[in-house]
Amino acid sequence: DKKFNKIVCVGNLNKTKNHIQLIEFLETSKLKYNLVIIGKKLETQTNYYAKLIQISKRINFKTSNKIKIYQNKKSNFIRKKLNRSDLFILPSLSEGLSIALVEAMCMKKLCFVSKSSNHSKIIINNKNGFEFDLNERSFLKNLKKIQKLNSKKIKDITFNARLTVEKLIVKNIIFE
User: Fold this and answer.
1) Which residues touch 139 (CB under 8 Å, ≥6 apart)?
2) CA distance linking residue 123 with residue 131, whole number of Å
3) Which of 22, 76, 96, 106 is deepest in the core (most CB within 10 A)?
């Protein structure tokens, strides 16, 4: 149960990043977790931010799971949190190429991303990361796959993630 308990999610604190649904999925999973959400609070998303804070306080109070929300977007802070994480999750409803995802892959982090964005152009399921459809069933099914991985398989996947980023940069695909 404790295999992937340190989870990081990086992205602006808005509806499109889908943090609330991520928390709901994690609560359904029965996984014991510490979730760190890092992002900038947007002035246009005050209601969303208030709801996110309310949900995290409720979970922190009622369960052993912990959610921390940081409005710090400094690179060294993000790298520090990623270094201490077991799993990077990006549950976005839609997104272009996520720099946070590229950074996590570059740092050889196990990545778990929604299929509803352009991540499928760089994440090859089970080879350099994992994808899920934006529904609870798909999320839980793929999370269970990740939980069953042994340390060698995790090392292979995270190594492939790093290689993918290196190839993207060399080919300049990332900058197109």
Assistant:
1) 25, 29, 132, 133
2) 7
3) 22
